[in-house]
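Thread: quick sanity check before group meeting

JM: Hey all, I'm pulling together slides for Thursday and realized we never actually wrote out the predicted structure for the chain we discussed last week. Dropping the sequence here so it's in one place. If anyone has concerns about the input, flag it before I start.
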Amino acid sequence: HNSPHTFLPMNSDVPLSERERQVLSTLNDVFDFVNDLEHHRLQPSTARDRCGSLQQAVSQLLATLRSDSGRSSTGSEGALPETMVSSQLMEVLKDLQGRLHAGQSEAEKQGRLSEATCRGLCFVYERTLLVLKSSPGLDGVGEQLHTLRPTNYYRNVFHVGNALLAVFTYEFVLPYWACVAALGVVLLLYLGMDIARRFWPEAQAVLFDRYFSVITRPRERYIVPAATWYAVAVFLVLVLCDKTIAQVSVLVLGVGDPAATLLGRRYGRTLKIYRQKSVAGFLGFVLVSMAVTLFFLTWRRPLMLAADRIQMCLIASFVGALAELFGDDRLDDNLTIPLASAFVLSWVM
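JM (edit): ok, ran it. Output follows.
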C-alpha cells in the first residue's frame, strides 16, 4: 500500500479456508479503497466506480455466507462453520454494503463523496475489523487485515513530550498565572487552526497534509484532532485543580495512553477485557503511569508521606486506565483520561 502508516499483516502463515480467503480478499479491497479516500488519492469518477464494484463484492460475500450458514450442518467442503458466521458479522457487512451503495448514488448525483460518507465508510470498516478479531475462528482473518489506525511512533513521542513539557514548565519555569496564559494562547492557536481548516481548503492542505501529517491520523481530517482535546484537557485541569493533582493527571495521560497502545498491540492480541482493549494494554497503562508519577512525586514532593504518594499515583493511574478502557471515538480519551484522574483525585485526596 502507498500509505506511510500501513504495516505488515500478522500471522500471515496461518492456513485459511477458501471462504476465509474470500473474506480476506474482499475486505482487503475495501481497505485499499477507504485508505485511498482518507488520503485523497481518488478522482470522483474512480471513487464512484470502486464504490459500485465493492458493493457488488460485499453483496456476493453476504450471499455466500448466508449459503454457508445453511450448508454448514451438512459439512459441505469450503463452507464456514455456522458458529463463525455471527449475526454481528452479518450486520456489519450489511452496513458496509449499504454505505457503499449510498456512496455510489451520492457520487453519481453530486459528482463526489462527501466527508460524512468517507468518515462513515472508515468507521464501518474498522467496526468490521473489530468484529472479525472477536469472532471465534475468524480472528486469523482479522489479524491479517490492515487497520486505518496503525501504530505511529512519532505520535507517541509527541504525546509524551507534550505532557513532560507542560509538567516541567509548571514546576520549574513559569508561575501559575503565566502557565494559564501560555496554555490559553496555545489552546486558542489550536482552535484557530482547526476552525481555519474547516472553512479554507488551503489551510487544510497546509496544516494537515504538510506540517502535521506525521502525527495525525487520516480520519482527523474530518473531526476535531486529538491534539486539540489534549490542550483542552490540560488547560482545564490546570485551571480547576491543585498543582500536584494537575501535574499527576497530565503525566498519566502523557505516558499511560501510549503505553497502553504499544503494549496492547504487542502483547494483547488474545486476552481482551472490553471490546478490543486488552489486559496487557490496561496493565501497561497502570504500571507505566504509576511508575512515572511516583518517581515525579518522590523527586519533587519529598515531604509527602510515602503512603499518600503511592495512593495518589495508584488512584490516578487506575482511573485513567478505566477512562481509556471504556472510551470510544465519540469522546476523545485525551480529554477523559486527565479529567477523570484529576476529579477523582480531588475528591479522594
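AS: nice. Residues 123 and 329 are 10 Å apart (CA to CA). The first strand starts at residue 272 and ends at 274.
JM: adding both to the slides.
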